Amino acid sequence: MDNLYLGTCSWKYPSWGGLVYSSREPVNYLAEYARQYSTVEVDQWFWSLGKTGAALPRQEIVAEYDQSTPPGFRFSVKCPNALTLTHHHARKGEPLRPNERFLDQDFFMRFLESLAVLVPKIGLFIFQFEYLNKDKMPSRNQFMDRLGAFLSSLPGDMPYAVEIRNPRWMDGPWFKLLQGQGAAPVLLQGYWMDDIAATMDRYQAILDDTVCLRLHGEDREGMEEQTGSDWSSIIRPKDDELLCIAGAVTKLAGAGRKAFINVNNHYEGCAPLTIQKLRRLFNEL
Asked: pLDDT by residue (tens digit) across 133-158?
């Protein structure tokens, strides 16, 4: 399917040697990766917010990513958490300290400028929000108002996507807000979110032209303990779930929508092997 982008969450895993890479330590991981996949999720620029400032991408790294990939390759870039955290991280018992860069248009524009050479290859700018309790966000309406105003303030020709982790907020009004802003919904498998395939079927009529699926997994620590960080085999297969997801995505693609599927190692144990399964399913459906 021309409107389907299948890739992984990050790419620099030595245990993918023989699966994706020519060795455990290739000269250029990303260049070899891009020979097999059409997209990848970048999360290294997400971890931005510090105690006193917020980091932006280094120009030499941005240039390296551009030079390592062909023109049709697409990056899903997780935007800095300096934009999506309502408050600075606090230890237990410490008071919450507001983050002055939360949904700040000026900081996003600085981030965008830092990625200038890579922008033609960016398929999604993902704004990922943590679970928001009432201490951090008094109401869903307030969050949606602030998010809508923020998205409206951004350049209109960029591909935005939004992920939330409050399951009860993901309903008709949520998808209509994103559709009205031209932003793709990010559907997350894991973190107590509703079933992806069921959500796509339920809200298909009001989804944006682009949908992003992040197959993340429910038990990060357990998977890391079980694998020993060797991500070369499937250890917790989810074949039935993948069949449902592939069916729902096929239906979306048939309606002319574009889909990004970003697979994490923590989903089944090996993102490349999960993608092999998905490719077979899409060929069969």
From this structure: 999 999 999 999 999 999 999 999 99
Identify whether the C-beta of residue 213 lies closer than 8 Å to the C-beta of residue 259.
yes
CA dist 82 → 54, 144, 170, 211 (Å):
6, 18, 23, 24
Global pTM reads 0.96
- Domain containing 265 equals 4-284
Rounded to an integer, the average pLDDT of 213-238 is: 95
Which band of pLDDT confidence, cut at 50, 70 and 90, is reported for residue 92? Answer: confident
Quickly count helices (H) and strands (E) in the chain. Answer: 11, 8
By the 8 A CB rule, do 180 and 154 touch? no
Residue 158 dihedral angles phi and psi, to the nearest 5°: -110, 150
Q: Say which CATH number the domain at 31 has.
A: 3.20.20.410
Number of domains present in the structure of the chain: 1
- What is the structure's pLDDT at 280? 98
Q: Transcribe 87-152 into DSSP letters.
A: B----TTSPP-B-TTTT-HHHHHHHHHHTGGGGGGEEEEEEE-----TTT-S-HHHHHHHHHHHHH
pLDDT at 93 exceeding the cut of 80: no
| Mean pLDDT across 212-225 | 94
Element (H, E) at 185: strand 184-189
Q: Is the dihedral of CA 107, 110, 114, 115 positive or negative?
A: positive
Contact 163, 214 (CB under 8 A): yes
Q: Which one-letter DSSP state was computed for residue 235?
A: S
- Do residues 232 and 14 touch, judged by C-beta distance below 8 A? no
Residue 90's pLDDT band (cuts 50, 70, 90): confident
